[in-house]
Amino acid sequence: MPLALLALAIGAFGIGTTEFVIMGVLPQVANDFGVTVPTAGWLVSGYALGVVIGAPLLTVLGTRVSRKKMLMFLMGLFIVGNALSAFAPGFGLMLTGRIVASLAHGAFFGIGSVVAADLVAPERKASAISLMFMGLTVANIVGVPGGTYIGQAAGWRVTFAVVAALGVVGLLGVAGLVPETGRPETEGVRPEFAAFRNVQVWLAMAMTVLGYGGVFAAITYITPMMTEVAGYTEAAVTWLLVLFGIGMFVGNLLGGRFADRALMPMLFASLGALSLVLLLFTATAHHKVLAAITLTLIGALGFATVPPLQKRVLDQAAAAPTLASAANIGAFNLGNALAAWLGGVVIAAGLGYTSPNWVGALLSGAALLLSLLAALLDRRTRSRASGRVVAASRTDQAAVPLGH
């Protein structure tokens, strides 16, 4: 494994920790600033919005510099945002710090995916991407529970100060280990936007929105589901989320490995199984052990889709992959926001705390249908290209004079 992948994974660990740790210290933050918990929830939604906006914006702005320099700038932005959150005197500045940190999120994973893929042989690109995302999955196993514990023991400001320090480690790692590969292959912004003329790029991003959105439909409301339906205590939810994180870790590694061998079959299998397991969760959520097992499977199957989806975008936008890759990271967060909203709608409609699982199953099922459509279009494109080659060959043969 190239050491540069380790540097990218450390950066991903810090970003994953700051994205999710706020959920564990949200009541403390709300109490300190004298705001309601729903108001403090803007620290979550504001972060997601910042990712969606920052991913394409900063990627476009970074087309004139090397990917290494851009990654270093993004880690610097991440450090500033978390330091501002740690020392914010008021809620407004805390929200500003969250948004500043979130701007780095999408562009880091988008550009980092391209860098990771370039570090290895073509047949190992999806595995390299999964190794970078491993930092994000480990954050859910170690960083988020650890950050929550620190926040409860020493205060939430210490949590964000520690996360900022993680950003410094990530910055030093990128500076020392990531090779200087020059500017992106394309010059300027236009070639990067040209990638979006390919319908397959849009299909891949739609699969991202719906497929990973299916996971968030369930996980957003996991606390009331586990406490009110399964019968767990609130304290146990932290350990249930650790199980979810372990599932993410395993699924991410397997998704990268099998996507290198057969990308589209891997997508078919993971999306189909995810939709089925989310359906089963409506029943297993009523049993403690089965609920814990199902939650782990959702984490594994959900994150098994990440490396193949990211690799799919890189393949379909091969001439100008950087912006498309970053936009796909924004698509993950768009899916998170959409699924969380839809899950809230069905709960508010009185359908119960397990109803978001039905929403998630429908979203993941829709992503499976889109993947089948993408494969069909691929087949037709290859068939047409093969037909043109055969026709051209026959024309060449007919043009050869007799006697030759």
TrEMBL record:
Membrane-crossing residues? 42-61, 73-93, 99-121, 128-150, 156-178, 199-223, 235-255, 262-283, 289-309, 330-352, 358-377
Chief location of this protein? membrane
* Alphabetized InterPro entries for the sequence: MFS, MFS_dom, MFS_Efflux_Transporters, MFS_trans_sf
What are the Major facilitator superfamily (MFS) profile domain coordinates in residue numbering? 4-382
The entry's keywords? Cell membrane, Membrane, Transmembrane, Transmembrane helix
Q: What topology does it adopt in the membrane?
A: Multi-pass membrane protein
Q: Does the keyword field hold Transmembrane?
A: yes
Molecular-function GO terms, alphabetical: transmembrane transporter activity
Gene3D superfamilies on file: MFS general substrate transporter like domains
Which subcellular locations apply to this protein?
Cell membrane
* One cellular component (GO) term of this entry: plasma membrane
Transmembrane as UniProt keyword? yes
Sorted alphabetically, which Pfam families does this protein's record hold? MFS_1
Q: What is this protein called?
A: MFS transporter
